[in-house]
Amino acid sequence: MASKRSSSPPPPSWGRGLHAFAERSGIAIAAALQRLGTIARHGSVAIPHLRRGARVAVGSARGHHGSLAMVGVWLITGVAILSLFLYALASRTPSWFHPVNPHDPVLIDLAQRVENRVITQLYKYRGEVDPATRATGEPWTLTITQDEATAWLNCKLPDWVRNLDDSATWPSEISNLQARIDPSRLWVAAALRNSSVASFGAAPRADDRGLRLASARAGIGSLSLPASWFGGTTRSLIEHAAGKPAAARAWDLATGAAPLSEQPSIRLEDGRRVRVLAVELTPGTLTLRCQTEAPQR
User: Fold this and answer.
1) Is the pLDDT score of 17 beyond 60?
2) DSSP letters for 9-34
3) pTM for the complete prediction?
4) Are 30 and 22 a contacting pair, CB within 8 Å?
5) Which of 71, 103, 180, 249 is the 20 to 30 A CA-CA neighbour of 147?
6) For residue 250, how many other CB atoms are within 10 A of its CB?
7) CA-to-CA distance for 142 and 145, rounded, in angstroms?
8) Strand pairing partners for 187?
9) Are 253 and 114 a contacting pair, CB within 8 Å?
10) How far is 58 from 72, CA to CA, in rounded Å?
11) Quick one: pLDDT at residue 36?
12) pLDDT band at 163 (very low <50, low <70, confident <90, very high)
């Protein structure tokens, strides 16, 4: 007697739920889940090209194949859930980001005061020159709070960029810059034209190899990833989008691929140098320990 062709049972409720989930998240995994679910439940799979009624049975490997199928189900589901989670993080504004008004007189005054204080500290007379080390006076510290940094970034940085290059213009896509300092990194975030928030964080380092940024992370919204993960592709995209090699150079400086300075010191207009001995990050505060040196002979 010819055997009747067996029909597959309808997908279980969890299979239908996963199918709906896949449609909402935009991930085309429904067909794969249904197929893997059939194998897991029945231990066999129909081959449409064989003659009527023929099936390929899993046999003794039924349990093994079922386990593999369920592993596949969970892996695909896990990837989908992780993708949604990352998307949610990228869409959420960081809790520490609060838009500021660059035209606020209080913010402008704070930016001017911190700039004046930094210039005063850099050019201050520190004492007689030590002939052996060329150092003048004792080491000194410069402290900047994240509120002061935020004020300067919004009110002074655009003018500073234009002073460096007359042809440079501040990008209209970037606004509301904000600084945040924690014990591991100095962060700078900005609002973009598409209403998202981009951020970049790094740890300033000063040693015999110069001044550089380390442990850099880049992010969108509340999602941040190590900058090293983006590799050379991002560097090429930045150079192509900006149309200038200097843009790619800025990426190298930001990610620590190139030092900010070959020496851990800043040359002043009067010929003296200010050497950065150490950088300390504490919640809300950046502290530089410095030593002023006499001009090189």
Assistant:
1) no
2) PPPPHHHHHHHHHHHHHT---HHHHH
3) 0.66
4) yes
5) 249
6) 16
7) 10
8) 180, 201
9) no
10) 17
11) 47
12) confident
